[in-house]
Amino acid sequence: MVTKDQRRRQLARDKFERQHERRVQAQRKTVRRNAVVAAVLAVVLAAGATAWAAGAFSPDAKKDDAASADASPTPAEPSKAPDPCTKPAEGSPGTEQWKKEPAVTVDTAAKYTLALQTTCGDIALDLDAKNAPHTVNSFAFLAGKGYFDHTKCHRLTTSGIYVLQCGDPTGQGTGGPGYTIPDENLKAKEIAGGTYPAGTVAMANTGQAHTGGSQFFLVYKDSPLPPNYTPFGTISAAGMKVLDKISAAGESTGAGDGAPNATVVINKATVGKS
């Protein structure tokens, strides 16, 4: 007999896959549109100037779509909780893009940390270079370029699954660095049962294999998800308290999935080696 909890989890997974597919289709349309734009630019600037086009966006990381036990839930009223965070530091997200993944230079035997200085408090993460070298290497590269600085964490889910999603300079869930990285560490015992435990940091993707870019999600409460998203580190106890503060403020739609009410901006991201 299927329990209510099992039914809820299945509905969450089903909705998750449906919304993934819609976003993948939308991204393909974006790729085709960008190709047309690039072709037009090439014609207009054919007199010797260099035409540049951004190409396809890296993964739309709106991958952890929440669902409730009701397949067609009635949206609740948006939360009216006050913003618990401070004003962002002056500056704007960068726009630099790269054509290919940087060469892997991380020491897989060393310990790496990622320090996120946010408007809501500092979030420290221990990174797993041994089991996710491409991912940690990419984060070290991007952080060194200031790629994450002044970027907004654009998505909070508070129903079904419980994550804060960050890493997109556009703040819309469609941006990335211009390259993708391979999936890693998907057989980790921590996620083998179809749950990403609280305190996990993992990569977002389009729902297809090897489509991670710069977007990542921070799990603040155990979340039922298939093991398709590279887990590459853990969140410190102090960082979890910051996430609790952010989640308590709720999200903008009242339906359990939207922009966080808290103004979560990464003022500075730094990768360190110990």
TrEMBL record:
Residue ranges that the Swiss-Prot or TrEMBL entry lists as coiled coil: none
InterPro entries, A to Z: Cyclophilin-like_dom_sf (IPR029000), Cyclophilin-type_PPIase_dom (IPR002130), Cyclophilin_A-like (IPR044666)
Pfam families xref list: Pro_isomerase
Gene3D superfamilies in UniProt: Cyclophilin-like
Compositional bias ranges of the Basic and acidic residues kind: 11-24
Record's compositionally biased regions (Basic residues): 1-10
GO molecular function: peptidyl-prolyl cis-trans isomerase activity
Keywords: Isomerase
Sequence ranges of Low complexity compositional bias: 68-79
Sequence segments annotated as region (Disordered): 1-30, 59-102
Function: PPIases accelerate the folding of proteins. It catalyzes the cis-trans isomerization of proline imidic peptide bonds in oligopeptides.
PANTHER family with a match to the protein in the record: PEPTIDYL-PROLYL CIS-TRANS ISOMERASE B-RELATED, PEPTIDYL-PROLYL CIS-TRANS ISOMERASE-RELATED
Name of the molecule in the record: Peptidyl-prolyl cis-trans isomerase B (Cyclophilin B)
Source species of the chain: Actinacidiphila glaucinigra
